[in-house]
Amino acid sequence: xxxxxxxxxxxxxxxxxxxxxxxxxxxxxxxxxxxxxxxxxxxxxxxxxxxxxxxxxxxxxxxxxxxxxxxxxxxxxxxxxxxxxxxxxxxxxxxxxxxxxxxxxxxxxxxxxxxxxxxxxxxxxxxxxxxxxxxxxxxxxxxxxxxxxxxxxxxxxxxxxxxxx
Amino acid sequence: xxxxxxxxxxxxxxxxxxxxxxxxxxxxxxxxxxxxxxxxxxxxxxxxxxxxxxxxxxxxxxxxxxxxxxxxxxxxxxxxxxxxxxxxxxxxxxxxxxxxxxxxxxxxxxxxxxxxxxxxxxxxxxxxxxxxxxxxxxx
Lengths: 165, 139
What we know:
- Chain A contains 1 helix and 9 strands, in the order ββββαβββββ.
- With 165 residues, chain A is mainly beta.
- Chain A has one domain (3-163): Lipocalin (Beta Barrel).
- Chain A has an 8-stranded antiparallel beta barrel with strand order 1-2-3-5-6-7-8-9.
- The relative contact order of chain A is 0.21.
- Chain B is an alpha/beta fold and 139 residues long.
- Chain B folds into 2 domains: 1-31; 40-138, CATH 2.40.50.140.
- Helices cover 34% and strands 40% of the residues of chain B.
- In chain B, helix 2 (45-54) crosses helix 3 (56-63).
- In chain B, a hairpin with a 2-residue loop joins strand 3 (85-93) and strand 4 (96-102).
C-alpha cells in the first residue's frame, strides 16, 4: 500500500482552547481527540468529547460543562469534518513542513458552521502530524453564558495538534 | 463585654475569609478526584461498549463523569502524544473498544491478551468508550 492511500489515524490528538480577557485567561486541554485523514484525498475529521476538557480550575470545568455554557450532558461531542485543500501537491513520503488550508464544517453544541483555517502538515521520520489554530465566535454556536464578553472572550482561540500513528 | 463582641466579630470575619478562600480559590485548583475510593459502576469492557452502541444517550446519562470499574482483555498499552500512558481494552466489536488514558507518566507494562481491571472517569463515546483519569486496580 502506498502512503498516499493510507488512512492516518490517532485517538490522542490534542485540542486546546484559550480565552483571553483583561479579567482572566482561561485555558483547557483535551488529549483524547480522535482524528483521521485520508492521504490521497485530504479528507479530514476530528471528534472529541466535551467532558474530556481539563481545566486547571475544577470549578471552571464544572461551569464549562454546565447548563449556562456547553450543556455537555445534552451535547457531549464536538466534531469537525472537512478537507485539506490541495493535498495532491503534498508528498507524505517526503520529509518537510507543508503549509495548508483546511476547510469544513465544525459542529459544537449541535450547531454546524463552516470554518476555514491555516495549518501545517509535518512529515518527520515517516510520521505525519498536523497542527492548526483558528478562532471561533461563541455566539455563532449558541453559547451565550452571562460572563461572555466580560470575563470570557467573545472569540476563543482553538489550537489543534495531531500526531498520527 | 464589648471586647468579647469585637473578638467574636473578628473571629467570624477571619473564619469566613479562610472559608471563602478555601472553597473559591484553593479547592478548585488543588482538589483531585479520589478515583480509587469513589463509588464506581462495575462493568466489563464488552458490556459497556455494547451499552453505548445500543443506547448512547441512556448510557451517557448512566455513565458520564462517573467513575467506572472496567475489566477486560488488553489489546495494547501505549503512550499518548503528551507522554501519558494509555491502554485499550477489547470488546466484541473490533472497531469499538474501551480507550483509557491513565494517570502518571509510566507506560503500563502489560502484555496483549492479559486481563486487567481499571477505574476511571467516563467522558463519553466516540468510536471507543473513552475513559480519563484512569488507574489500574488489578493486573
